[in-house]
Amino acid sequence: MPSKVYFQPNSSRTLLFLLISGIIILIFVAYYPATQAGFIWDDNDYVTDNPLLRTIDGLWRIWTTTETPQYYPLVFTTLWIEYHLWGLNPTGYHIVNILLHGINAILVGLVLRSVPVRGAWWVAFLFAIHPVHAESVAWISVF
Asked: What is the rounded distance in angstroms from the CA atom of residue 101 to the CA atom of residue 23?
């Protein structure tokens, strides 16, 4: 009786796993330096000098008032959560942005593959490391 083979190099699941792993590794290699960056530009208005992030009442006011620099309640809610996770340590904010960018790159590959588009994963890899996206990782207040 033949034994079951769980790892087949040519299977579509294995290939998908390798492509997704490749995107994740590529993004962390490309954007790791951003984890050492601090707060820049609007990050002070959005995070460091924003009193709404510090209190439970602030979360309510994010959604019900116009006290934030711009009315982006979902953005400020995520910043509120992050502030309560790691305070004013910018590394955590940058890691979340890297993870979100990685998820987006993987979704680009999956969506284009399902359409189907030739070279869908090449597009996803290009999307992952294209310099135009550096801002969304290095600048905390850009989502």
From this structure: 10
